[in-house]
Amino acid sequence: MITREDVEHISWLASIKIEDDFKDELVRQFNTILEYFQQLDEVDTEGVEPTYRVLDLENVFREDIPSGSLSQEEALRNAPRKEDGYFKSPRIV
Amino acid sequence: MLSVLREELRAGSAEEYLSRLFDKIKRSRLNAFTTLAEESALERARQFDREPWDGLLAGVPVAIKDCISTKGIETNCSSRILRGYTPPYDAHVVERLKEEGAIIMGKTNMDEFAMGSSGENSAFFPARNPWDPSRVPGGSSSGSAVAVAASLAPWALGSDTGGSVRQPASFCGLVGVKPTYGRVSRYGLVAFASSLDQIGTLTHDAAEAAALMGMISGYDPADSTSVPEPVPDYPALLGREIRGLRVGVVREGFGEGVEPGVREALRRALDVLAGLGAVMGEVSLSMTTYALPAYYVIAPAEASSNLARYDGVRYGLRASDRSVRDMYGRTRQAGFGPEVKRRIMLGTYALSAGYYDAYYKKAQQIRTLIKNEFSSALQSYDVLVTPTAPSVAFPLGEKAADPVQMYYQDYFTIPVNMAGLPAVSVPCGFSGGLPVGMQLIGRWFDEAGLLAIAHAYLETTGWHRFRPQPAVSVAGEAR
């Protein structure tokens, strides 16, 4: 059972501010969805390896040779706030 | 059709052809496009008319789903959080199309961040089905399907994570291809669920799909999940003999949850395949029923990670500067629509401490069982058949209230992404005047086999030649 507190905790983890009435809606919807997820418990998965990747690829590396890159200007073009070639954001420290 | 179009463009005027398309689009009320690259596209067309270049798509316009990066053309995934974002680079598939001489005409409408099965989750406006504009075109590649079906674009690229190319193809009477995972590079595709996403094609027929697939498939070092598997010559293999092919009809495809009209169209389609010499058999995929809940754990979990980057810092919307926490919280509150928020939060929950084993790990174990079941079935059969969707296109608003009801749209398509297999939706008739799609599921990297079956089937039945009536104006009724 998901509670309003759970929704508040998840919203904190996900960094999404949620309005009060949406919180209530989410509690209802999540509980419906989680009830639906209970089906998963019906399946016996004892000893089954999880599939995190459908392909057999592993450790895909490349040679450490620099190749093309965006210019600083291109990289900053979509920035909401920038200054002196940096992305600008509220203070962190 | 491709060669005919190319000849026409060379003989006539690419600019004229494109202008007519843009006019049609602007008069259309189907909301297929979010951004039209009119200036750049018409300029390219003029250049082509002055001095034509070579290439399989020389002078041909293509529509690109708005979650695929196009350099210099706004790419917003039909989301407020990316409104105004203009990528500084092209996705690999866009580069490939440009290498073949294509002209990028614009970006198509979609469910926000590819989360949806109807097009109604677009943050801006819902796309409408050209066969009946009061109905949805399917999603999340809604605009791409509408554009091609309504002849607003000759073809389009979409993306498919749980059915988002195949289901709109089914609702709009088109051929929709979801490649094997790793067949087509995801570099430049805005990530939703990285272990499930693939870029796919939406075209009228299998020959066009084969041509387009040939152009966009192949190894790309910029995508670490791209597979160095050689790309067959899909167009050359279209005429492959299907006599003797072993077709596995999936029993669950004829269950009660599937509309009678869809079941009927499928039965007739299967008769056609049998008539073409296919050997028909029946198979049960009992794990199918668990694919949906497992997917709705895995996809949102992966999305919660992939969408963490939308934080107001480097691109897109920034809703506050008060503090870092406030910037994140308010930006994502204002920028994401309700379905996106729902899925991010669901995914966050499924991955959080105390729940990871019960949900995410369990779902991935079930994924292994699904993959194994397909693998086994595809040893006895060369192709498996299901309806693409349990219904035909439904009215706008009908399923918007209950998220779980909407999720059922992808009942038959989701298991395919879970296993990483290729699948094609092929138009197979109508029910109540609305298109029905048949899904063909093949072995890993057997796109050629699927396209050959689709081609033989369509050449026999002619379903790909049907077009909706020219779009009538949609009266401004509120929904």
Written description of the protein model:
The complex is a heterodimer of chains A (93) and B (479). With 93 residues, chain A is mainly alpha-helical. In chain A, 35% of the residues lie in helices and 4% in strands. Chain A is built from three helices and two strands, in the order H-H-H-E-E. In chain A, strand 1 (82-83) and strand 2 (86-87) form a beta hairpin. In chain B, helix 8 (260-275) links the parallel strand 7 and strand 8 (279-283). Residues 472-479 of chain B have low confidence and may be disordered. Chain B has 15 helices and eleven strands. Chain B has helices at residues 2-11, 14-27, 38-50, 92-99, 142-149, 166-172, 206-216, 260-275, 288-306, 324-335, 338-351, 357-380, 403-407, 414-419, 447-461; strands at residues 33-36, 61-65, 103-108, 156-160, 175-178, 198-203, 246-250, 279-283, 383-387, 423-431, 434-442. Chain B has 479 residues and is an alpha/beta fold. In chain B, strands 1-3-2-4-6-5-10-11-9-7-8 form an eleven-stranded mixed β-sheet, with helices on both faces. Classes of the chains: A mainly alpha (93), B alpha/beta (479). At the A-B interface, helix 1 and helix 2 of A face helix 9, helix 10, helix 11 and helix 12 of B.
Short description:
Chain A is 35% helix and 4% strand.
Got a strand count of chain A?
Answer: 2
The share of residues in helices of chain A is 25-40%
Structural class of chain A: mainly alpha
**For the largest interface in this structure, which chains are involved and how many residues does each contribute?**
A-B, 50 and 66 residues
The proportion of strand residues of chain B reads 5-15%
Poorly predicted regions of chain B are 472-479
Helices of chain B, by number, come to 15
Could you tell me the mean pLDDT of chain B? Answer: 95
Anisotropy-based shape of chain B: globular
Overall structural class of chain B, as computed from helix and strand content, comes to alpha/beta
